[in-house]
Amino acid sequence: MPITDILERNAALYGEEPCLVEINPEIRAVKPSWKDSELVEPNPEKRYRREMTWREFDHKANRLANFLLERGMEKGIKVGILLMNCLEWLPIYFGVLRTGALAVPLNYRYSADEIKYCLDLAECEVLIFGPEFTERIDAIRAQLPNIKIRMFVGQDCPAFAENYYALTACCSSAAPRITLTDDDDAAIYFSSGTTGFPKAILHTHRALMLACEVEMNHHRQTRNDNFLCIPPLYHTGAKMHWFGSFLAGSRAVLLRGVKPEWIMKAVSDEGITIVWLLVPWAQDILDAIERGDIRLGDYRLDQWRLMHIGAQPVPPSLVKRWKTYFPNHEYDTNYGLSESIGPGCVHLGIENIHKVGAIGKAGYRWQVRIVDENGSPVEPGAVGELCVKGDGVMKCYYNNPEATAEILRDGWLFTGDMARTDEDGFIYLVDRKKDVVISGGENIYPVQIEDFLRTHEAVKDVAVIGLPDQRLGEIVAAVIEIKPGFSCSEAEITRFCTALPRYKRPRRIFFEQVPRNPTGKIEKPKLREKYFRGSLVEAQTESS
């Protein structure tokens, strides 16, 4: 069944019930909000909070779908979505799917050049974007001849775009008569390998439906649950976890911000029962409790039943600390890739907290195996590459058959992660085959940073690696070799890197010769071995 059928069912069964809430603690209610086609003036005395019912969700999706069809957008076109988390995000996503088009969510941290690259790679013909991206889109709009429609979601629509609200307000709210099947293409997400160039990951409606079923099976959502969604919706992790609530017909809250007090207030005020956190956010909550900045007695928390974590390795000590303050919480760890429709192809299971440190076993309707370099299964306890198989595996890397052939073999997805199993069959990650640095749940690609640093006049060579960090999981470190006759300081490199997005800037800088093997490849394992121990000691010292 196509995933859009679930929205139609929820609207029919629970039409007047709230399904989504948006909260932005950083601003008061100073913006107008849109309820169907009616502009609602704000009350500046209230916090910025908007909500939407299932029927409104369904109608908004249908209006966008009908607009796109009226403008000649046929089944199979690609629609880029470049928005911060907001109440419009998911209706837009489902409106795109309703037309038979493919939704193409874009990372809101992308530079203008990266946005252009991804839109071109996915062959997008429509771009829907928010006010945070006006300057970036303006800078590249002349270079996007394939974009036929630019829709702006917000106030003060730029002259080079059309207003989303005005365009869809008068369109029919009835579902368009487009036939969809499980095998139809549904969405393109972006990932990247160590080369740093994003790959377009193509998924079908069948894969999206499996994500719904996996999440509800693992975390047992019911109509009484309320899910707090903090991570960005462009990422498979956030959306696929919400899919369990979507399938159950239960509520969700989109929280714009990650401060511990904001999270706790949202849980208390909105009656949240399920929270998905990244390691840094869980760490920050615990630190705030221990500093006395948060007093648990000030919040209504009895209904909060589940905290789960994904996107990066989880220190067992963190979960132990968490259970000290939240002894009644269920806990789960989730492992996944965008190529496997996000979290859940492997998961720990809420009944297996005694195995914290493992990523778990095969998820619902998934198969896993660990293989050697020849693709043959290894013995229990031996290290090999983790492979997964199921209906959630991507169809392909769009327009990239060579990369597809490297990662997909006989239906198995080769993850690039090295792993082992224990005597009970639980899987433990050992190392990453790729050099991607995961910091705060975000993938950071060393080659991009290395290429940037090499533009500095004093830099001869550079290697970027990840080092352990108690809060973020990993931080970016740069090993820099200076050209003969030049000098350079750490402060100078730090200033130079302000041109990079903040999350990509090196937190540690070392000056030495960059080691390369006889074929010219940087010997990063040597660098990790050299600097890992010192950073690990620092991280452990900070946590003690």
Task: Give the arrangement of secondary structure elements.
Blueprint: H1 4-14, E1 18-28, E2 33-35, E3 38-40, E4 47-53, H2 54-70, E5 78-82, H3 89-98, E6 102-105, H4 112-122, E7 124-129, H5 134-140, E8 149-152, E9 162-163, H6 164-169, E10 185-192, E11 198-204, H7 205-219, E12 226-229, H8 236-248, E13 251-255, H9 260-270, E14 274-277, H10 279-291, E15 306-310, H11 316-325, E16 330-337, E17 342-347, E18 361-362, E19 367-371, E20 384-389, E21 396-397, H12 401-407, E22 408-409, E23 412-421, E24 427-432, E25 437-439, E26 442-444, H13 446-453, E27 459-469, E28 473-482, H14 490-496, E29 508-511, H15 524-543
Parallel strand pairs: 1-13, 5-6, 5-7, 7-8, 8-9, 12-13, 12-14, 14-15, 15-16, 28-29
Antiparallel strand pairs: 1-4, 2-3, 10-11, 11-21, 16-17, 17-18, 19-20, 20-23, 22-23, 23-24, 25-26, 27-28
Helix pairs in contact: 1-2, 2-3, 4-5, 7-8, 9-10, 10-11
Report on this model:
By secondary structure, this protein is α/β, with parallel strands linked by helices. It has a domain of 107 residues: ANL, C-terminal domain (GMP Synthetase, Chain A, domain 3, 2-Layer Sandwich), CATH 3.30.300.30. The chain is 31% helix and 29% strand. Strands 4-1-13-12-14-15-16-17-18 form a 9-stranded mixed β-sheet, with helices on both faces. It has a 5-stranded parallel β-sheet with strand order 6-5-7-8-9. Strands 19, 20, 22, 23 and 24 form a 5-stranded antiparallel β-sheet that branches. Helix 2 crosses helix 3 and helix 7 crosses helix 8. It starts with a helix and ends with a helix.
